[in-house]
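Consider this today:
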Amino acid sequence: MLRVIPATQAKNSFGEVIRRVYEEDECQIIERAGIPIAAIVSMSDFERLYPEKLKGLPKVAMSAKRQRAWRKLLALLNEPGGEQFGEEEVEADVQKAVEEVRHGGSER
């Protein structure tokens, strides 16, 4: 989601701006005099857009929204009577699927 806000509003409600970026994964475009001058994006978006700029930095913690989604997915996968999956295993499968999509499909 994208939201455009005036610089004054961003300054006066910076805590809310950060919360929306972190919890709701909402990109905030800051404008001054009607001209876009900056953007505040989530770390997951920044990682996706500029992976080379993050080399050497510690791994970014998951957003609260992403953590809730992971807990829900793991709960569904680990329902009684079903096969048990760990977060690392699911994350590896998701990353593999993302790479396959990025590179034109899986090799079968």
